Amino acid sequence: MTRIKTQYVGQWIDVTRSKQFTFDGTVVTGLHGDSVTSALLANDIWLQSRSFKYHRPRGPLTLCGQDANTLVQTPNTPNVLADRLEVEEDLRVSAQHYTGWLRFDLSRLLDWFGRFLPVGFYYKAFFKPSGSWRWWEPLVRSAAGLGVSNLSVSAPYNDKVYAFCDIAVVGGGPAGLNAALSAAEAGARVMLIEQEPYLGGSLSYHAFNGDMTATQLRRDELIQAVYEHQNIRVLVSATCNAWFSDHYLPVLTSGRLLKVRAKQTILATGSSEQHAVFRHNDLPGVMMCSALDRLIRLYGVVSKRPVVVLAGNDLAYQTAFSSQDAGAHVSAIVDLREHCDDPALAIHAENRGIPIYKHCAVFEASATTLGLELAKIVIHRLDQTDGIGEKVATIKCGILAMSVGFMPAYQLACQGGAVLNYDDETAQFSLQNLPAGMHIAGSVNSMFALDTVETDGQNAARAALRGLGMSVEADEPNVCHQRVNHPWPFVKHPDGREFVDFDEDLQIKDIVNTTRMGYRDIQLVKRFSTVGMGPSQGRHSALPTARLVAATTDRTVTETGVTTARPPLTPEPLGLLAGRRFHPIRRSPLHHRHVALGAHMMPAGVWQRPAFYGGTERRKSLIEAEVSAVRTRVGIIDVSTLGGIELRGPDAAEFMNRVYTFGFIKQPIGKTRYAVLTSEQGVVSDDGVAARLGENHYYVTATTSGVDQVYRDMLKWNAQWRLDLDIANVTSAFSAVNVAGPLSRKVIETAGCSVDLNAHDFPYLACKEAYVAGLPVRMMRVGFVGELGFELHAPSPLIGELWDQLMTAGEAHGIRPFGVEAQRLLRLEKGHLIVGQDTDGMTHPDEVALRWAVAQKKAFFVGNKSVDILSKHPLTRQLVGFELGTSSPQPKEGHLVIHDGNIVGSVTSCEYSPTMNKIIGLAYVHPSDSAVGSTIIIRTDNDIHVRPVVVTTPFYDPNNARQTL
Amino acid sequence: MTETMFNVSPLGGQVYDGAISIADYTTRHRSGLRGAQARSLLIEAGWSVPAHPNEILQTEDRGFVMALSQREFWLLEPTRDALSISISTTAVDKDVYPLFCQSSHCWLVVTGELKSSMMAKLCGVDLSDNAFATGTVAQTQMALINCIIARHEMAGHDVFSLFVDHSLAEYALEVLLDARDEFV
Known about the structure:
Chain A is of the alpha+beta class. Chain A is built from 24 helices and 51 strands. In chain A, helix 5 (174-185) links the parallel strand 9 and strand 10.
C-alpha cells in the first residue's frame, strides 16, 4: 500500500505523525488521523474479523461504521468499530470471535458444516431429547457473543448535558450544510450534528459531476460559512441516536450524552450504499465503492492490488476514475446495465484504458490459497431477463468495489412514524408521513445530484423555518432524475454462499427458505431468520431481503415493506446512558454535629439520619445505652426530618377538620392533637401532630417520607374547596430536636426558657411559641418515646445553636444524643405506630386500633365514606402487640404470620426491649387471634415457627404516667 | 440573640472563584410574602414589583423582588445581613402571610460567561442568553432537586441566583462544583 497526502487525497491523515499500535499482538504503524481499519489496510492487513455464525474471514465493507466486519476488541471494550476507532499510540486492539488464530480459526469448521445449520436451526434443535439443553447450553453459550467485557474496569466519567436549538440538522454533508446555513441565515438557532470527525460528508470523498476540485471547493466554502455563523453550533463525532416525540434527540459524543431539545428536525442523514449479492461476496477485499473512495480520499491509502468496480449505477464510475487518479490499477468495470445513464462516462473510461464489461455480473469471487482474501472474480454475461448467461472472463483482483444502489438512512425518520415506500418501477425510495416538524434532505430524500442535494437542504430549512412560524420565500423547484438503484443485483450460485446479511451469515437460500416455511410477513422473516438483527441493523440487508421476499411471495417490495426501525440507531455505551450519577442527599442542619459525635449515619428516604452514636461493632450496646438514657435521664434526638406544614387563615380550622380524621374545630389554642390522614379509599396514609398556635394558625407535622404528598394533597383539596387559608410547606424552614426523658424539663430550664415548663402551665400535649436559650422556638409536649418530652422546632439556621445550648445545659443531667434505632425501639415499647412501617397500602383505622382518632360525629373528612364502609365489614386482619422470651429466635420485619396453615399477616416491627427484657413486636394477625393471651404463629428464618403471645400495648408504661409528668 | 447566630449557612459562606464563580449568599437577607394583597403591599412599601410571575426586578439600592406566582414574592437583599429570624406567622396584612425563605432555602450566586453551559449539565431548562433573559425566573429542577433559578444583574454582573432547599444545599454545591470543573 502507498500512503498519499495531497489536497484531496488523505485529507484526514498527518503523514508527519506516525502512531504505533498493536493488532492481535502485531505492531502496526499508522498515521495521526487514521482509523484502526485504515491503518491496517495501509499495512495490507485486510482480514480484520470473523463472521458471527460461520467464522468466515471478513474485511472492511463500508469504512464508516455501518457494518459488523470491523468489530474488534480493545482492553476495556468489546465490539468496537475499528473503522471509527482512531489510532492512538500504544493502543491495543485485537480481533474477536475466533478459536485459535485469526488467520487460522478452528471454528471455521462451522462454515464447512453449514448445511447442517439451516436458517432457524436453533428453533428446531437443542430441545430434543428432553433434557438435552443442559448439554447444549454450555456449547451455545461459549459459541455465542462477541468479545469480552472487562468487568473490573473502573467506570469512566460520563455525564449528560441538555442542549437546545430551534432546528437540529442531523448530518453534515452537502444537504445538512445547506440546511444549516439557510436556517441560520434566517435567524434560527441551529445545531448541526455530524457523526464523522469532520463536516463535509460525501463532498469529502465523492467527485460530484466528476470534478473533485470543484466538489471540495464547494465543501470548503460551505464548511467555512457554517463555522463562521454565530447561529450554528457544530457537533462532530456526534451520533444522533434516536428521534423521540417533540424532537428530543439523544446525541452521543465521547463521554457525554447530549439531550437535545429541538423545535424542528432536519434529517440529512444520507443513505447506505448497498452490496451486490453473489457467491463469496463477503471476502476481505470486497467493499462498497464509497468505502474505497473514503480509503483513498480520507486516509490516503492506495492499494497496489488490482481494483475491479462493479457498477449498478453511474456513481461507480467515479470510484474507478478516482482510484485510477490516485495511482491504483483499475482492471475493469463490470456494469450490470447495458448502458450508463450518462454515456460520456463509458467513453471516459475507455479513454482511460479501463475495460467495461457491460450487462455483466460477478458470478463468484474466489479467495487466495489460504482463503482469507479476494484473489479473483468470475464474470458472466446477463441475459435478456437479467438471468445469468455465459462466462465472460476471470479477472484477478485484490479489491472489488461495488455500487449497486443506495437505501435512505431511514431509521430516525421511521422511529418518528415515517413510512418508507419503494417504487418498483424506478427502484427508488421515498419517505412519507414524516412527523410534524421533521424534514428530510439530500440522499435520504433520494436526491443524488449535487445541485438537487443542495437545493433540497435549502428547501428543508425553509420548511423548518415555516414550522417555527417564520416567514420565508417559496421552495425552489427541485427534482432529481439520477437513478442509483439497480433493481436486481442478485446472482444466485448453485453452491450458495451469496450473502444477503453479513452480520448473521444469511444467504439467498436462507431468506427464500424462510418464506417457504410460511413466514411471508417481513417481520416474521426477520424474527425467524434473524436477518437485520445484527449490529448493522439491516442497513445492508433490509433491501435485498425485501426484494427476495417480494419475489418469492409474488408481491412488490412496497407490499413487502421493511422491518420496524427502533431506537437506538447505533449501539450505545451503558456508561453514557447512566451518565453522572445524581443521588440527592438531604442533610439536617445538625448533620456535621452528628458526625462529629461519631454517629453512624443511615439513610431515611433521601435523608441521612444518625442510626446510633458510636462504632458499629458496639451497635447493640450503644442502642441500649441510648434507650436507657432516655428512660432514666434525658436524651436528645434530631427530628429535623419531620415534615412541617403551616396553615394560616380564617378557614384553617375548617380545612384541618376536613382533611384529618379527628375533630379540629374545637381544638384549643396552645394544644396539640394527634392527626391521622386517610385517603379517599379509607387507608391510613400519614400521621402527625397538629399544633394550634392561633385562632387561624396551625402548624402540622407529617412523616418524613410523606410530607410532600400530604402537601400536594392539601393543595389539591383546597383547589376544590376554595377555603380562605394559606398552605405552606415549611419542612426545611424549621428544624427540630426532641428532648426526652425524666430530666428533659430540667435541661431546658437550665438552657433558659421564656415560659414556665411545669406540668400545670405546660402540660402534656400543650404547645407554645417561646424562647429557649434566647432562640425562638415552637415547643410541643409530645410523648412519642413514652417519656416526658419536648419537641423544639426552630428556624433551620438556628437549630445548631439550639442543639449546642441544650447539650451544654444537659451535661450536668447526663444528656445523651440518641439515634433513629433507639427512637424506633422506644416508640415500639410505647406501642406507637410508624405509618408506612406498621401500615401498608391497605391499612384502615380499625385494623390498627385508630378508631379513637376518627371523629364519629363529623359530617365529613377525606376518606370518611370509605372508613365507614370498611368499618361495617368484618376485619380480615388486625395489628396486635406480641411478646416472646429472650431465648426465642427473634422474628424480623416481614416474617409471615400463619393461621391454620395460611398466611394471614406479617410482622411489622420487632425488637429486643432492654427495658422489658423481652422480644416485643407488632404484627398483623387473624382477627380470631387478636385477643390478648392468644398465641400466634410466626414463621422465622429457616422455617422455624415461633409462637408469641398477644399482649396489650403499650408494652411500657401502660398508664402513660411517664409522659404526663 | 447575637447576630452571628444568623450568619449560619451549611455552605459556610464560601466563594469559589474562577471562570465560573459560585458564591454562597445564604446569610444575605431575604423574606417573602404570599397572599392576594401581597403585590399592592410591596408597591406601597416602595418596591418595584415584576408584572408577571417568574420574573425578578431590582429596586435600586434595596434589592430584588422575585415573583413566584401572582401572589407570592420573595424580597432579596444581597447587601444586607440576615439580622433576625422570626417564627411569627401572623398575617402582615389581611390575607398576606410571611414566608420563611430565609430559613427554608440557601442562596447561591453563579457568575461567569459560561454559566449557562455549566447549568445545562444539571438543568433541563434552556438557560442560555437567548432563551433565559435577564429578569427571568425558572422554578425547575437541578440534578433531581427542586431549584429556583433567577437571572439578574448584581453589582454589574450578569448572575444566576439559585435557591435550593436548606437540607439539600451541600448536595447542590457538590453537583455545581463538579459541573463547573471543566470550565475552570
